[in-house]
Write a structure and sequence with these properties.
Radius of gyration: 18 Å
Distance between the termini: 36 Å
Number of strands: 7
């Protein structure tokens, strides 16, 4: 894994979070595929004694939230397409596929190469190696499926990029038909907390983070100059908290009270 860069190396964090949740908190998310892959991951990643339960569950909650948005989208639009930007080692396909949806997974070439080793493409999956912030992947999707509604997911991706770059991506996608984008983000306070505590606990204190959203309404204004259909919700609102440590419940409550971490869905 020496060929993975500092940011790309964070792809192991959500996988380990889903494994932890599946083994200890399956009410939040149960990921059979992640458990199957546990022994294939680098052995030095299995040590998580320095991480709190809250830290271990934070990325698992992201996957649980994404699953909920994806299932809702496919219920409304069973003819829809799912595109996962910065897919890493995400196993959403195995949890949420409805038996007919086309799935696309986009990440940098060396990440896609590693993904193929652990998660070979399934029948209705297409892996696209490239930059998530260019037009190449969306042009490929629209060549394959010109009129299908698309849900683009970006889990744990935008934090590492400047706001201008993220907004340019949204503006670009508006030119390609019916597209929704769902992503997790933080507000300014949440960004400070992630940099100070969370990234240090998961072993990536050297990773720089830039993008945060204090208000989805203000973000929409920067994208389109006006309002658009959107959803903005606290990160832990729909997460079952039974059986969790008191300290974990308190951290989740504080995060939601001050909207430090949130889910946003934009109908571009």
């Amino acid at each position: 894994m020496s060929h993975l860069g500092v940011v790309e190396d964070t792809l192991f964090v959500p996988m380990l979070g889903r494994i932890y949740a599946s083994e200890h908190c399956p009410q939040i998310i149960y990921d059979k595929k992640a458990l199957e892959l546990k022994e294939k991951l680098p052995s030095d990643l299995q040590e998580n004694g320095s991480q709190s339960q809250y830290t271990l569950l934070a990325s698992a909650v992201r996957s649980a939230n994404m699953d909920r948005f994806i299932r809702s989208f496919l219920k409304r639009r069973p003819d829809g397409v799912i595109v996962q930007l910065g897919c890493g080692l995400e196993t959403t396909y195995y949890r949420c596929d409805n038996g007919r949806t086309r799935w696309y997974a986009v990440d940098l070439p060396h990440v896609i190469d590693y993904r193929k080793e652990l998660l070979p493409q399934s029948e209705r999956e297409t892996y696209l190696a490239g930059d998530a912030f260019t037009e190449n992947w969306i042009r490929q999707v629209r060549t394959d499926l010109p009129d299908a509604p698309i849900l683009v997911t970006a889990g744990g991706l935008f934090h590492y990029f400047e706001e201008d770059k993220v907004i340019s991506l949204f503006r670009m996608l508006r030119q390609f038909g019916e597209i929704e984008v769902v992503f997790d983000t933080v507000n300014k306070k949440g960004m400070a907390m992630m940099q100070k505590k969370y990234m240090k606990q998961v072993g990536h204190a050297d990773v720089q983070m830039f993008f945060y959203v204090d208000s989805a309404v203000n973000l929409a204004g920067k994208i389109s100059g006006g309002l658009m259909d959107m959803t903005e919700e606290p990160y832990y609102r729909y997460i079952p908290k039974n059986g969790l440590k008191l300290s974990t419940k308190v951290s989740m409550a504080v995060s939601d009270r001050f909207c430090m971490v949130k889910m946003i869905c934009l109908n571009l």
